[in-house]
Task: inverse folding
């Protein structure tokens, strides 16, 4: 058995590079001919969106560390230099961008073979298309297009993060004068990036709005004396870090609101340009926009923000998509007169998207109108823009229930919508509690108190994912409804902690960070290690999104070297290496996003299943309020074990993580096991009755 090397550079994988490996797995799905064509296009969009966020957050952080020499902020800097990691990131991004461009052209050609043609402004040949495009521009698109003439451009003006612009050169050929320049922001937030043109002879046609603007450039600038136009796409990616004001006279909501305004003017971390742009034009825009050589310049293709490919029109080609399973109805809940009565009989385990999210809404709706319900408490991290969760809470307040919501204002990129919902809830009489700087509430909890006779009875929901109807149809998560009063009382104490200036409590069942999570997780691996050293069976199966905490990694290495068998399913970034045969790490990327966090431990006769909101990262252990909960119902625990072991058998969508076989697909002589499909069938067979 291979032993670990003490303090070896090869012992840990850098978190940024491991995250790039994860996004590489997303790109593999776009490249795979075994994935339906329109799904490949979506994966291409997901890859692009992920990469943008990576630059806005992780690359921006590294650049700040290098700029201000705050290397103590960089985890694992004992092993990794931020400067070297930035260089390695750039090398890998260049390689990935080449693959992205290649697969994009393959997908465009594949669409054409299916009778769907993406055409640009130079490829409009048919009279019907010419008139349609002109009409669309004049009647729809033109309303949203406001050119900035660069002669009068204010250098202090800020180009918006995430938006894409056309940099336009304009001149009069007869005068042969130097070109004038303009900027046009594409209105892709207000309009679809793609416009479907009239069908001709059974063939379908799609255009980017970029190219519609290019086609109608003379119409847009008809008050000027130009007859030659060239347009090239550019994009900024800005630092997304929020600078928190310490002004004690401001509310926390005001502090976050002000920080969001600053984010819009954050330092650029990447400037992406069409590589076809002439050098003199590029130099002009660089000077005019105050960019320097320190700003990362990325040469790319004609189209940026390929994240918009996630919304590419289906055009009736459903055979080019994954089959959509109808969510499995829960037999007990479908027949139930009351959700509370069913939960009281037995815990209810829900698995999304295999089962409908409506059961969470039903739970809240019944609580909002039940005359015996006294209070509803809930944590909210991310909710939808049209949220029935919020509607149910508002209805509860209108019905005289005491409703308390802990709204996390620091949920990155969801701050604005959470501020909106905070105000909306407060207007309706809901008590809203906000977090404090430096400490996020990431736990997924609902607590309902109900008067039954002379007793107060708790009904509780604990989940691994957000209370968000939209993501619940895409993300694989689990949620448990329980009337176990010990669990209910402890969840109520978590809410009391929010209201009592983070007063701490002692819990029998729940494990709550930042107080108890780290010692609990590290203690579990100590227990497994001791059991293995006594010659007893010791095993852990772990399903998380990210594993980045070095101290926990050390405990896992020690356990694996002592003989503990550890199976890990880690979708995202992972610092661990498979140092010996006892430590196996895989990642599953497929039709749905694997998001559930499930833990199973066994040593000797002792075994436990847990669900949690927390990944194993330093921030989850030290700077967030998270909850880990044991699954006490034996049927629910059994089903969660089966879900774990089904994923561990995957040899279709599973990849090895780190080590010599990093990102290789798991292939063996076993029959094909597609775990996402098999988990759906498992829920269909067993989960509908739990």
Result:
């Amino acid at each position: 058995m291979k032993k670990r090397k003490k303090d070896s550079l090869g012992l840990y994988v850098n978190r940024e590079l491991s995250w790039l490996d994860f996004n590489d797995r997303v790109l593999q799905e776009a490249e795979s001919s075994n994935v339906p064509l329109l799904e490949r296009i979506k994966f291409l969009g997901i890859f692009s969106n992920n990469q943008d966020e990576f630059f806005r957050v992780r690359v921006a952080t590294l650049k700040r560390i290098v700029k201000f020499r705050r290397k103590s902020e960089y985890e694992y800097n004992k092993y990794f230099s931020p400067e070297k990691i930035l260089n390695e990131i750039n090398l890998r991004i260049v390689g990935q961008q080449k693959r992205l461009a290649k697969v994009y052209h393959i997908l465009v050609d594949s669409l054409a073979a299916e009778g769907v043609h993406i055409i640009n402004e130079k490829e409009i040949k048919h009279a019907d298309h010419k008139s349609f495009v002109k009409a669309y521009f004049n009647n729809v698109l033109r309303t949203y297009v406001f050119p900035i003439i660069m002669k009068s451009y204010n250098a202090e003006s800020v180009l918006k993060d995430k938006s894409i612009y056309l940099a336009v050169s304009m001149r009069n050929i007869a005068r042969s004068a130097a070109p004038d320049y303009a900027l046009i922001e594409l209105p892709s937030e207000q309009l679809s990036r793609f416009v479907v043109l009239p069908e001709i002879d059974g063939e379908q046609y799609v255009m980017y709005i970029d190219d519609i603007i290019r086609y109608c450039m003379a119409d847009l600038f008809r008050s000027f004396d130009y007859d030659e136009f060239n347009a090239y796409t550019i994009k900024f990616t800005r630092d997304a870090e929020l600078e928190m004001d310490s002004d004690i006279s401001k509310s926390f909501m005001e502090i976050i609101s002000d920080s969001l305004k600053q984010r819009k003017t954050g330092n650029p971390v990447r400037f992406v340009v069409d590589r076809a742009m002439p050098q003199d034009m590029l130099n002009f825009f660089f000077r005019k926009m105050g960019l320097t050589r320190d700003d990362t310049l990325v040469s790319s293709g004609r189209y940026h923000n390929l994240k918009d490919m996630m919304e590419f029109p289906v055009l009736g080609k459903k055979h080019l998509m994954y089959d959509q399973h109808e969510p499995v109805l829960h037999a007990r809940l479908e027949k139930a007169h009351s959700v509370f009565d069913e939960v009281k009989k037995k815990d209810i385990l829900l698995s999304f998207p295999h089962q409908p999210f409506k059961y969470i809404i039903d739970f809240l709706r019944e609580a909002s109108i039940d005359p015996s319900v006294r209070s509803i408490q809930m944590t909210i991290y991310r909710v939808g823009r049209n949220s029935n969760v919020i509607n149910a809470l508002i209805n509860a307040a209108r019905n005289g229930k005491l409703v308390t919501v802990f709204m996390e204002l620091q949920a990155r990129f969801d701050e604005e919508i959470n501020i909106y919902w905070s105000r909306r809830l407060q207007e309706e009489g809901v008590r809203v509690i906000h977090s404090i700087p430096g400490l996020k509430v990431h736990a997924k909890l609902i607590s309902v108190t109900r008067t039954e006779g002379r007793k107060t009875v708790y009904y509780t929901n604990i989940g691994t994912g957000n209370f968000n109807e939209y993501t619940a149809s895409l993300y694989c998560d689990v949620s448990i409804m329980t009337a176990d009063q010990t669990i209910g009382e402890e969840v109520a104490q978590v809410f009391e902690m929010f209201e009592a200036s983070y007063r701490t409590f002692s819990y029998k069942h729940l494990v709550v960070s930042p107080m108890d999570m780290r010692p609990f997780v590290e203690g579990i691996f100590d227990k497994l290690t001791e059991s293995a050293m006594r010659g007893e069976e010791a095993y852990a199966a772990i399903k998380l999104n990210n594993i980045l905490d070095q101290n926990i990694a050390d405990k896992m290495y020690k356990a694996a070297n002592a003989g503990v068998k550890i199976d890990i399913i880690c979708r995202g970034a992972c610092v661990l290496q498979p140092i010996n045969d006892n430590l196996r790490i895989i990642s599953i990327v497929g039709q749905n996003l694997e998001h559930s966090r499930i833990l199973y431990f066994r040593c000797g006769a002792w075994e436990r299943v847990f669900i949690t909101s927390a990944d194993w990262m330093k921030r989850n252990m030290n700077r967030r309020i998270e909850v880990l909960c044991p699954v006490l119902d034996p049927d629910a625990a059994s089903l969660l074990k089966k879900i774990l072991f089904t994923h561990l058998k995957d040899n279709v969508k599973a990849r090895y993580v780190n080590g010599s076989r990093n990102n290789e697909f798991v292939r063996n002589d076993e029959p094909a096991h597609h775990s996402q499909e098999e988990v759906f069938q498992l829920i269909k067979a067993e989960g509908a009755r739990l």
About this structure: The radius of gyration is 27 Å. Residues 37-68 form the longest helix (32 residues). The CA atoms of residues 82 and 208 lie 38 Å apart. Confidence is low (pLDDT under 50) at residues 1-9, 244-250.
